[in-house]
Design goal:
8 strands; 35% helix; 167 residues; two-stranded antiparallel sheet; endopeptidase fold (from Nostoc punctiforme); globular; single chain; alpha+beta; six-stranded antiparallel sheet
């Protein structure tokens, strides 16, 4: 419970103070600007690929756009198809990959996690910028974009991870 409360307070603070700057690159490594450029490019590629899946039908356990996708299937498909990343099947397991990200420093292509089934990290989506994320919500609802500032999502936010640099 403490971890959830901490994540929620971090998200609320970030949403209150960060504004649209969350979608922009905020830190530049002093040693390799080429690394930053590659990161931003790969990150944007993942976010753009995710956008191409809007409208794909939800299917529990779904792994492909042709047959339908659930939230973790969507994330796995995007990162495998775009960047060649092999991710675990379940959102809880995906939440252990990569590095944690401060909500105030989210960038397009980061993953955002939510507790939608009374179970931490039970839902995952791809952050797009400007507090928007793309996800496969649930049965009967196609892949879509939602706003993390909506009460429903703020209340259920569990944290974020950055996968780039991970294989």
């Amino acid at each position: 419970m403490h971890r959830r409360a901490l994540a929620l307070s971090c998200l609320v603070a970030a949403l209150a103070s960060a504004g649209a700057a969350c979608a922009q690159v905020q830190e530049t490594p002093a040693t390799d600007s080429g690394l930053l450029d590659r990161y931003v490019s790969a990150s944007q590629d993942a976010a753009e690929r995710a956008l191409s899946l809007i409208g794909v039908r939800y299917r529990r356990g779904g792994n492909s756009p042709e047959s339908g996708l659930d939230c973790s299937g969507l994330v796995r498909y995007v990162f495998q198809d775009t960047l060649g990343f092999e991710l675990p099947r379940r959102s809880r397991d995906i939440s252990r990959v990569g590095e944690p990200v401060d909500p105030a420093k989210l960038r397009p292509g980061d993953l955002v996690f939510f507790n939608t089934l009374r179970d931490a990290f039970s839902h995952v989506g791809v952050y797009l910028g400007d507090f928007r994320f793309l996800h496969a919500p649930s049965a009967g609802k196609p892949v879509r974009i939602d706003d993390m500032r909506e009460h429903y999502w703020v209340k259920r936010f569990n944290g974020a991870r950055r996968l780039l640099g991970q294989r």
